[in-house]
UniProtKB/TrEMBL annotation:
Keywords: Signal. The lineage of its organism: Bacteria, Pseudomonadati, Pseudomonadota, Gammaproteobacteria, Vibrionales. InterPro entries: DUF547. Residues 87-198 form the DUF547 domain. It comes from the Bacteria. The keyword Signal applies. This is DUF547 domain-containing protein. The keyword Chloroplast does not apply. Pfam families: DUF547 (PF04784).
Length: 259
């Protein structure tokens, strides 16, 4: 009986993934739209510039060979960010704050556990990945990666392009972008990230009368809508899909996005 239970749990943890719903954590909804101050993400940009490279349709992070200096820079960046109360800034600054922090925390998580083949191998024994594990504390509030994505970013901004901005350190994920998000470049970055992913094979692979889509579009039907609405979204970045008639399948590669 115990052996059967163990095998069942192992199979479940390796194949199943249920995306959390968007549920607002109202504490983080406050902002100061009159505050013109901009946050610096230069340290995060340094880490990206030194360790991210392009290989085909993927951007890969050099977890194996990151320098001690860059590890220190990443730690300093995260420490600087979590010492900030983001509610004191306007929403444009808050968006780039949360996206960059999410991505930086994910990179740090992989580095702390490297070598690892997939982020899904991290977390507690019964979990699929580390997303529900407390990863940082801001304003005395313990936060998980799921909190940042599903209780702050998604419900506050309600922009489907968030799914192209946050990175889960996996090849199937929309690419970790080579530039830090800022309040000034956010819209251009989101548009680029969406177009890049939808025009990649891992995002949308067209095969005659079949579409193989990223599982992101299946997990987050709540955000992308029904099949017609999803196709409208995809065709706005890839016009050939506008009149698609056929079957749709979903896939995802959880392999680490390592160089």
């Amino acid at each position: 009986m115990q052996k059967t239970l163990f095998i069942s749990l192992a199979l479940l943890s390796s194949t199943a993934f249920a995306a959390p719903k968007s549920e607002l954590w109202s504490y983080w909804q406050q902002s100061d739209e009159q505050n013109p101050q901009m946050l610096s993400h230069e340290l995060w940009q340094q880490v990206l510039s030194h360790n991210l490279s392009i290989s085909g349709q993927n951007t890969l992070f050099d977890y194996k060979n990151i320098s001690p200096q860059d590890r220190n820079t990443l730690t300093r960046y995260i420490q600087n960010q979590i010492a900030i109360d983001p509610r004191n800034y306007n929403q444009a600054e808050q968006f780039s704050y949360w996206v960059n922090l999410y991505n930086a925390l994910t990179v740090e998580l992989i580095l702390e556990n490297y070598p690892v083949k997939s982020i899904t191998k991290l977390g507690s024994w019964f979990s699929f990945g580390p997303w529900d594990e407390t990863i940082t504390t801001i304003n005395g509030k313990a936060l998980t990666l799921n909190d940042i994505e599903h209780r702050i970013l998604r419900p506050i901004w309600q922009d489907v392009r968030i799914h192209y901005a946050v990175n889960c350190a996996s090849l199937g994920c929309p690419n970790l972008q080579p530039f830090a998000y800022t309040s000034e470049n956010t819209q251009a970055m989101l548009e680029h990230a969406a177009s890049e992913f939808i025009n990649s094979d891992k995002g949308v692979d067209v095969k005659a009368d079949q579409l193989q889509l990223s599982s992101i579009y299946d997990w987050y039907r709540e955000d992308f809508g029904n099949e017609q609405q999803l196709l409208e979204h995809l065709s706005s970045y890839r016009p050939q899909l506008k009149n698609f008639k056929g079957t749709i399948h979903y896939q995802y590669d959880w392999s680490l996005n390592q160089k």
